[in-house]
Design goal:
Low-confidence stretches: none
Mean pLDDT: 91
Order of helices and strands: EEHEEE
Shape: globular
Radius of gyration: 13 Å
Number of strands: 5
Helix content: under 10%
Strand order of the largest sheet: 3-4-5
Length: 71
């Protein structure tokens, strides 16, 4: 499956990803490799701060609010 980040201010490239559905999980979880392929740099996992690799040192982004799927 091809995936990409959807950001309002910058266009990103699609990358190949393997999708797995885990019973009981209601949030999207991405692997370290997919984060790398998408160019994501995690600055602070507790506060949800991150940036794109090309923005390192110049911009900080915040995690989006969670979206839940399922029953």
């Amino acid at each position: 499956m091809r995936v990409k980040l959807v950001l309002g201010d910058v266009e990103t490239e699609e990358v190949e990803a393997v999708v797995s559905i885990m019973p009981g999980e209601s949030e999207v979880i991405i692997s370290d490799r997919l984060a790398h392929e998408l160019g994501i740099v995690i600055l602070d996992p507790y506060t949800g701060e991150w940036c794109l690799r090309r923005e390192l040192g110049t911009r900080t982004r915040s995690s989006a609010k969670p979206e839940y799927w399922g029953p």
